[in-house]
Task: structure prediction
Amino acid sequence: MNKLPPLNALRIFEAVARLQSFTKAAETLCLTQSAVSHQVRNLEEHFGFPLLVRSQRGIALTPEGATLQHCLHTSLQQIDDTCRQLSQRQHSIRIKSPPSIAVRWLVPQLQQFKAQFPDLDINVSTVWEEKPAFDWGLFDLAIQYGDGDWPGVTVELLHREELTPVASPALLADKRQLQMADLADYPLIHTSRDRHDWELWLDAPWPKGQKELLFDADVMGIEAARHGLGIALLDPFIVQDALADGSLVTPCERTVPSGKGYYLVLPPHERHVRRVQPLVRWLQQAA
Result:
C-alpha cells in the first residue's frame, strides 16, 4: 500500500472543498486560516499537483481535487454513519429467535420489559435453523431451540420443552378428556417430518392409517389447531394465551419431556455478556 498522506490534512481539505472557503473551513474546524492553508499546501506537495485553483473570486477544485473531495466526503460519511450505529448499540439489543417462540411468547413479554427498561431498544429477527449459526455481527443474543450443546458460546436455559396434545374445543365437541385410543378419530397435526414428536408422546410407532396434517413451522401448526383442523402436539409454554382464553384446551393428561428446550445463547465475550445480562435475567424470570 502506498504511503497515505496525513489523515488530518485530508480532513481539512475535505472541509475546504465542501465549503469552498478557507475561512469557513477554519471556523468549522476551530483552526486558524493559516493552519488550514498550510495543511492543504502540504497535501498538494504530497501528490505533486494542485488540488485547488486560488483566485480573488475564491477557490475552485481541479479535476484531481474534485476526485479526492468526492472520495473523502463519501468515506467520512460512511465513518460517521458507522460510528453513530456503534454508539446506538449501547442502547439496543438485537435478538434472533425461532418464529414460534418470538411470536407466541417473546413479543407479548416485551411490553413489561420496556416498562422496566425504557431506554433500551429491542430488535427481534425471526429465523428457523436446523443447524444453529451464531453471527455475532448481526445479533447480540439468540433464543435457540435444541439440546443446548453448542461449543464456543455461552448457553443459559430458558425453558425445557414438554409436549402435550392441544386442540380447539369446537373440534372436541362435548368431549373434555381423550384417551390415547380416541386420537385415531382426529387428524394429528405435527411439524416434524419424521413424526418423532407424536411417536415420542405415544411411546409407539406412528399408527398405520392415522389421519395427519403436516406443517413446516410451529406457528402454522398452532393456528391449524386453533381453527379446529386437528390435534397438535405442543408445549403449553408457547400457547399460554390460547389456553388462557379457551381457544385451545389440553384434552389429555399425559405430558412428556422432549429432551430439548429453548436456550438463551450469548457470545463468549464477558464484556458483551454483561451488557445484555439484564435482559437475560428478565427473560429467565418471565419464563
Notes: The radius of gyration is 31 Å. The CA atoms of residues 162 and 257 lie 4 Å apart. Residues 161-258 form a domain with the D-Maltodextrin-Binding Protein; domain 2 fold (CATH 3.40.190.10).
